[in-house]
Amino acid sequence: MDVPLTKIIFARHGATDWNTQRRYIGHTDLPLNELGRNQAKELGSALARFRLDAIYCSDLRRARETAAEVQRAVFEAGRSRPPIISDARLRETDFGWIEGLTYEEAMARFPEEMTRWYEQMEMQTPPGGKESLSEVRSRVCHFMKEVSGQDYSKIVIVTHGGVINSWLAHIGKKPFWENPLKHGEWTECDGQEVRETE
Questions:
Q1: Which candidate, 142, 156, 116, 125, places its Cα nearest to that of 194?
Q2: Hey, which CATH number is domain 7-97+138-196, 2.160.10.10, 3.20.20.150, 3.40.430.10, 3.40.50.1240?
Q3: Residues paired with 155 in a beta bridge
Q4: Alpha-carbon gap, residue 193 to 190, rounded angstroms
Q5: Is 13 assigned a ligand-binding role in the annotation?
Q6: Residue 14 labeled ligand binder
Q7: Is 63 annotated as a binding residue?
Q8: Which residue out of 65, 92, 113, 131 is catalytically annotated?
Q9: Is 94 annotated as a binding residue?
Q10: Is 108 annotated as a binding residue?
Q11: Buried b / exposed e across 1-14, counting CB within 10 Å, b at 16+?
């Protein structure tokens, strides 16, 4: 019988310039800004007390840079250096035509498409985007099922707000919009919930 995951820590990456400017960033591959680097270091300090089997992260730079800070902090705390494993299934939603725009700019340019998306996010893609909320949740669930088959007891998953909200809503923590983690924040959940949702 497999040893079930006991704990999963979800962490949101540190901020980029577009995040601080409140722009849709999606798949655009920006680095952390100064604020984001500080948030990543604080996240690493907070997680350094844990013995981690692995750090998974989105393949986008902002998540990889944040994961590297967590790895560094854990190692400097005298623990084994956990491997970092990047996975495209942990990417944020592709926001299509509105990437780089603020909410106000997006509404001004694409009022009908934006309204339709916000009213029907479960099945509707962002304007010019490729995935609905249900499609994002599907790829996250496939990733989580795969991870649950590994012989881990505690892992960190460094990813994006939409991904975290999708999973927490899926396992019944809170509705999608009620799971806001700020950049550099983290939350812990029971790894057994992964197996129970299969």
A1: 142
A2: 3.40.50.1240
A3: 8, 54
A4: 6
A5: yes
A6: yes
A7: no
A8: 92
A9: no
A10: no
A11: eeebbebbbbbbbb
β-bridge pairing 7-12 and 186-190: antiparallel
Residue listed under structure tokens 């809170």: 174
154-159 β-sheet, strand order: 84-86, 54-57, 154-159, 7-12, 186-190
Give domain limits for the chain.
Answer: 7-97+138-196
Cα 53 to Cα 12: distance, rounded to the nearest angstrom: 19
3-state percent helix, strand, coil for the chain, nearest multiple of 5? 45, 15, 40
- From first to last of the 198 residues of the chain, give the pLDDT tens digit: 355 567 899 999 999 999 999 999 999 999 999 999 999 999 999 999 999 999 999 999 999 999 999 999 999 999 999 999 999 999 999 999 999 999 999 999 999 999 999 999 999 999 999 999 999 999 999 999 999 888 899 999 999 999 999 999 988 877 888 878 999 999 998 876 775 554
**Residue 89: Cβ within 10 Å count:** 18
Based on the residue annotation, tell me whether 92 is a catalytic residue of this protein: yes
Residue 167 to residue 176: CA distance in whole angstroms: 9
13 is an active site residue? yes
Helices and strands, number each (H, E), in the chain = 8, 5
